[in-house]
Protein 1
Amino acid sequence: MSERARVVVVEDHPLYRQAVVALVGELAWPVVGAFGDLESALPTVAEADLVVLDLGLPGTDGVEAVRAVRAANPAVRVLVLTMTDDPAVLGAAVRAGATGYLVKGAEPEDITRALTGTVRGQAVFEQALATSVFERAGHAVPDTAVRAFPSLTERELDVLELVAAGRSNAEIARTLVLSEKTARNHVSNILTKLGLTRSEAIARARDAGLGRGHLG
């Protein structure tokens, strides 16, 4: 990829969206689209080399948004800009295909470095968060859990890991940047697929190695 990238910005906050577009403009890169929601952005993603993506878009599961962008354009690079620095979200975003991850509040020069680094093919993370990202990405869901719950999707395994750690639906929603309704639906679907109560699912999931990294 040329270091001069075609960029799509997906950010629901108008001022922040304008700020990111301005930073891209300072690099003399073309912004092929700037959108406040994922649905509007997806048709344009095919034209992009880089997507700057907010995980907190209304009505959208943040990590699923990364997957949707990569499904629309498997070659595109995704730089996440979000409010959360939770390692569970960082790891899930990396597994979903994010190339870079910055927490909002980063200085403009840090965002510019992240833009250029991501386009060059580098994995770009804030230094203070890098260890958590790679630890989480490297052993995200144990193979034993994948084999133990073959009917569950990758996202449902992420949710089950937090269920196994004893997290409430509200806590799961905050950790994975979901609405509480979406988190509740994920949990309900998991329990229905497994034919288990929540307490039974916790015991089975812990036996399979889930939840241990979130206990305590």
Protein 2
Amino acid sequence: MIRAYKFLMRPTVGQTQALGEMLRDHCALYNGALQERRDAYRHVSKTSIKYGMQSAQLKEIRAFDPERQGRWSFSSQQATLRRLDKAFAAFFRRVKSGDTPGYPRFRGVNRFDTVDFPKDGDGCRWDSTPHDRTTRVRFQGVGHVKVNQHRPVVGKVRTVGVKREGKRWYVILTAEQAEPEPLSPTGSVIGIDMGIANFLADSNSEFVPNPRHGRQAAAKLESAQQALSRFPRVRRDRRTKNHQKAVQRVGDLHRKVRRQRLDHAHKTALDLVRAHDLIAHEDLRIRNMVKAPAPKPDPDRPGAFLPNGAAAKAGLNKSINDAGWGVFLTILTSKAESAGREVIAVDPRNTSRTCPLCGNVAAENRPSQDIFHCVSCGHRAHADTVGAINVLRAGLVRRDARQG
């Protein structure tokens, strides 16, 4: 199996400058290749240029501009061209499927933050020492950069990447390793119901509180964004240091919230995987859940619209995104696979409206957000707990059908 590792780098001042120049030059290569594809399609009888044609031009590009393109790894430049090729492949796939196409766009220097090296030893070298917190990674044109290796890398390193996040630099490794041994069976199965008031409720009537990291940082973020809005819009090379600090402040706050969500998702998923052999959850379509409501034209007043609840839906969408359900479910599935646990996604329809005792299904069974009161048998419980119980039952049915 392939596992990824992410470590903080501690480059010197000179290495930081060299890393920034590497991103800048790869960004220029990406934008130049994109411009070539656009021009060829528009002006040369709709000619399509593929990756192989652009990769064959790299030697000439490096010889023509040795100061900016010739100093970097050839394979990393090929990876940048493959990145553009994948963007076009995704664009054509969306066109064929009828989705919003999203034509590949030019990247600004501040929005191009990653350079990949497809093979360890080709333009880069990971010098790993087990349990050594000051290991180094070497990049062509940069040198040996110190790395804060907070855990050992298991397996053979395959690819290496550089990523910039604000003022921090990270190295991202992928290592090929043997399949891990599954955890010992516990004999426990559980269903979980994702929510907003509580992050999740399980079928054992337990709850995980919703930390609401975004809401906690909202005041600071609002203040930082207001400070940023006071600066006039100017070209990047004419921005003042105070403007750059304001941009950095907003980015730092967003990155902190993202790290907090990831930390909470990892810890919650790890507790579930360690304690249960089977975990059933709702198969949520989060992208559809956070769509804005369609406008309602007023038939009596042309050009006017009726209230459609857009303001309330915007608040709900913000809470859903703040909870980070999609990230959590992705992490849960990955950890369960490594631990030999089973994760089953079930249809979420009517899970919170079905009585777990008599099976009655009715919208009246849930008179409020938290209360479940069956109109048929009178059963009372927390609505999220009822949903988790029904999710678990549906998951067990799917598992038995699969095994049978």
Protein 3
Amino acid sequence: MVYAFPPGFQWGVATSSYQIEGAADGRGPSVWDVFSQTPGRVLNGDTGAVACDHVHRYRDDIALMAELGVRHYRFSISWPRILPEGRGAVNQAGLAFYSELVDTLLEFGITPHATLFHWDSPQALETKYGSWRNRQMAQDFADYAAVVVKRLGDRITHWMTLNEIFCFTHIGYGVGHVPEMAPGTVVKTAKAVWQTSHHALLAHGLGCQAIRAASPQPCQVSLVDNYLATVPLSDTPGDIAAAQAAFPLTGTNGGILYPALTGHYSPQLLEELGENAPDIQPGDLEVIYQPIDSLGFNVYTGVYVRAADNERGFEMLPFPQGYPRLHMPWLHILPDSLYWGVRHISDTLQRPELRVFISENGCAAQDELTPTGEVLDLDRIQYLQQYLRSAHRAVQEGYPLMGYFLWSFLDNFEWAYGRDRRFGITYVDFATQQRIPKASYHWYAHCVQENRVV
């Protein structure tokens, strides 16, 4: 079978600011600076102070991207690089860096897709009022968005508000324990955790309004979410119905994706949360439920569901011990999660008109240089091949999947795992900052060139 994509399918790569940029001295401190400098929090004591030194090497990196053949690049903008205090005085050097980055992308024929927030919130706002625990964070985010869009909106027409609300709220704030994998705070109740994601949703809504008001030209606005796709154990009517019934009750789907795309928290979720449901002020849901032009879906894995003879009518199945996974504890290989994640937007949430793009998909592998200086990441190629076939199935069946951004272009600072886990299709020797395209880079170049899964 030829897994060919339609003309105009967008092939791209993705990165994020804190994970690649470095040049910590050129921006205000982010919560990730403080977290990674705290002994014992990040593997091997790594920090993002230098990361891939992309701030100084962006031109070479973009040239390598152009060689790959992609015409779309998703990157994020560092809030504290623009506003070192999180609000108020603008760091013009920070804006100038992103302006130069965008000009260079356009020079190489690559369309910029900018994410305004990818976890690196200003430490100043954490110190001032507890960042996402406070409603003020939403307004400060919108003000920051306006500053960026006014300056760059003459050349950037694809904007994303926030990346993965679940991760920087529900993983970042813990009840009774310090979050292990993210900077955050111990809070007293699950309700307080849900309140942080509610404030992030408000930031998304106010951010959408700010982007559209500030943009000097028509633009596309998206939300990026890593919602959990419920995958039916078999393609039978019973299991498919079970997967749909489970969708709002899996992960935080019903409390993040649902309000953003339907204007309401999932009623089943609110019932389950009871007194732990967040406080929702009058008008909040109208602010959150902004029209968006597309949805970015970050997909790595999913959850199997089957029909069950219980009051819910479904059960979620744990992965058995021997189930295949890649180089992260959670990275179980489940290619159908991409197809079902796209399908659920159309069929389960009843938003068939909403275009979806894969904003991240990739894997960590145990990459090593061969004696001849190659990186033969055959496991990554196998993984990407399966997930792209799943993307092809979604397109073939008429679901509005418009593009695919591979995560990630470069090996980078992988959050609490530091430099130990490599997600890139380009190997980075962190000691020398040398870039070495892996086997997967060359494989992906063929996919892009031929507009199909090779």
Protein 4
Amino acid sequence: MTERIGTTCVQGGYRPGDAQPRQIPIYQSTTWKYDTSEHMGKLFDLEEAGYFYTRLQNPTNDYVAAKIAELEGGTAAMLTSSGQAANFFAVFNIAGAGDHVVASSAIYGGTYNLLAHTMRRMGLECTFVAPDASDEELEAAFRPNTKCVFGETIANPALAVLDIERFAAAAHAHGVPLIVDNTFPTPINCRPFEWGADIVTHSTTKYMDG
């Protein structure tokens, strides 16, 4: 039986087994105990999976991330301290100093400043194109060192709607991923992966948080 989106909102990311709590436990510990320094060392060196510091990861956060990934139809997710941090990580894990990004010009002001100014100081350049740019204008924005394309499903606050399929097609034609900030519609109203996006970000303090 296919699960409907409303059920995923409630049940997604956490399926308790026999004699496990019905609701997700809230882990408030900042740190975790280990019997040996060797075990802890393997965690810090990322040789083993596990928890050692809540600022990086804890089970409660992982359940929330898994719920968002399931709602979006993604394969995995991670939480960051803010939506802007999510956008930074999404871009900067792909593009760095000496690279280039193509972005819709109709995006949240903080994200525009991140791409146009903050990341520029880090050596990354960005070309902005209107969300309704012609195919020729969109194509002209790409360079040999373009590493990704960025846009918002519905721009904050302009409410301009991104043609995800068209931007995805342009990105994929150049062998790069499309990153879409899906904050405004949430996966209830739009799931960018279904239209060709490769990475989806959110600021959960907006509609997703109510």
